[in-house]
């Protein structure tokens, strides 16, 4: 794991315990050494996490006595405003979310805002419960990373009934207007596909993960656009929606498939590992590209070529848009901030010499 973000994982875990009442106001925290052992990180990492919690007013560190939870739970000392970030994810505290939160918190600090983060397990019921909980805390707005915005219209109406602004992050539903911050998924799909085509691949497949998401569909649209521009066929067979590793391995061995564009890095890494167990390896047997650059150090070790989106910038844009809505600078509930993407070339793509 990228060492630059380990402290954020510790920080968010402790903050979650404070917000949920597991660590109560006035309670003394464990020692730095105990936390280092619990989270399997260095003392430097623990100190950085505690320092940020202290600077944001959640805890107080008293020399020779210890570290204590502050009495005011939802409004840390020195802040006058409050927003909620709700993240629905399979894997909590992964690096991409930490980068996004870092961007949000850096902008929030400049505007004297405190941020409450609620985590949900990709579960609409948990998301609704988290929104209801935050509506009781006098928040001024919401930043929402939801499991499926298309299924969240009712819970979003709960926020609208209170005349509070919200910004959807990364995932949105095109059927209704909203404030949104994300990356240029369509252009990313074009860049990835063109990279494979430039390497003389013609039998390219798009591997989906959660194809109901508009962001993933936009990546596929970029893929289709590049394929058609190059005069290559695009049909339903080029879209892999149900992952069958044995079928994919057979297609690679028969040269029906020479390259794969995976909709995200997690799926790309899973594919590389699964095919490796079947004695198929990148790039000698096939080429593969991911999307996100979610963990740079892991992608480096695997050699995964990918499309980088700037999670930190997405977080900053999301807060800026929400703050602008709170201040009345933007209105109409239909403004979108799109961050650029870029190609990161590594070893997983090679020139196709067999046609």
The CATH homologous superfamily of the largest domain corresponds to: Response regulator
CATH class of the largest domain: Alpha Beta
Q: Major sheet: size, sense and barrel closure?
A: 6 strands, parallel
Number of helices: 12
Q: Are there runs of 5+ residues with pLDDT below 50, and where? A: none
Radius of gyration: 22 Å
Cα-to-Cα separation, first versus last residue = 39 Å
Going by CATH, the architecture of the largest domain would be 3-Layer(aba) Sandwich
Share of helical residues: 40-55%
Indicate the overall shape. globular
SSE series: HHHEEEHEHEHEEHEHEHEHEHEHEE
Alpha-beta content class: alpha/beta
What does this entry show, briefly?
With 355 residues, this protein is α/β, with parallel strands linked by helices. 41% of the residues lie in helices and 19% in strands.
Describe this structure as you would to a colleague.
Helix 2 crosses helix 3. The chain folds into three domains: 3-69, Winged helix-like DNA-binding domain superfamily/Winged helix DNA-binding domain (Arc Repressor Mutant, subunit A, Orthogonal Bundle), CATH 1.10.10.10; 81-182 and 311-339, 3-Layer(aba) Sandwich (Rossmann fold), CATH 3.40.50.2300; 185-309, 3-Layer(aba) Sandwich (Rossmann fold), CATH 3.40.50. It has helices spanning 6-19, 32-39, 43-55, 95-110, 124-135, 153-161, 185-198, 214-229, 245-253, 265-277, 296-302, 311-326, and strands spanning 59-62, 66-69, 81-88, 113-120, 142-145, 166-169, 179-183, 204-207, 239-240, 259-262, 287-292, 305-309, 336-339, 341-344. The strands form three sheets. The chain has a six-stranded parallel sheet with strand order 4-3-5-6-7-13, sandwiched between helices. It has twelve helices and 14 strands. It is globular, with a radius of gyration of 22 Å. With 355 residues, it is of the alpha/beta class. The protein is 41% helix and 19% strand. The longest helix is centred in the first third of the chain and has 16 residues, at 95-110.
């Amino acid at each position: 794991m990228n060492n630059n973000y380990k402290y954020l994982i510790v920080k968010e875990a402790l903050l979650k315990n404070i917000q949920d009442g597991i660590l109560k106001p006035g309670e003394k925290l464990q020692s730095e050494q105990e936390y280092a052992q619990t989270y399997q990180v260095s003392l430097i990492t623990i100190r950085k996490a505690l320092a940020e919690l202290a600077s944001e007013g959640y805890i107080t560190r008293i020399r020779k006595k210890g570290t204590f939870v502050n009495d005011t739970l939802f409004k840390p000392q020195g802040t006058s405003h409050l927003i909620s970030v709700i993240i629905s994810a399979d894997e909590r505290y992964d690096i991409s979310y930490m980068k996004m939160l870092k961007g949000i918190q850096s902008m929030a600090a400049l505007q004297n805002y405190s941020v409450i983060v609620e985590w949900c397990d990709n579960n609409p019921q948990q998301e609704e419960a988290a929104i209801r909980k935050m509506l009781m805390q006098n928040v001024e707005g919401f930043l929402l990373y939801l499991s499926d915005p298309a299924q969240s219209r009712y819970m979003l109406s709960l926020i609208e009934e209170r005349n509070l602004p919200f910004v959807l992050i990364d995932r949105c539903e095109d059927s209704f207007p909203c404030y949104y911050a994300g990356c240029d998924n369509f252009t990313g799909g074009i860049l990835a596909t063109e990279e494979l085509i430039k390497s003389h691949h013609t039998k390219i497949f798009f591997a989906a993960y959660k194809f109901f998401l508009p962001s993933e569909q936009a990546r596929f649209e970029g893929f289709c656009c590049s394929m058609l521009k190059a005069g290559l066929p695009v049909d339903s067979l080029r879209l892999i929606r149900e992952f069958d590793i044995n079928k994919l391995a057979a297609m690679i061995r028969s040269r029906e498939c020479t390259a794969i564009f995976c909709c995200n890095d997690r799926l790309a890494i899973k594919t590389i590992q699964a095919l490796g167990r079947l004695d198929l390896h990148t790039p000698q047997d096939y080429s593969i590209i991911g999307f996100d650059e979610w963990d740079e150090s892991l992608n480096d070790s695997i050699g995964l070529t990918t499309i980088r989106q700037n999670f930190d910038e997405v977080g900053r844009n999301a807060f800026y848009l929400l703050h602008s809505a709170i201040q009345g600078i933007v209105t109409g509930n239909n403004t979108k901030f799109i961050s650029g993407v870029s190609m990161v070339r590594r070893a997983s793509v090679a020139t196709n010499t067999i046609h």
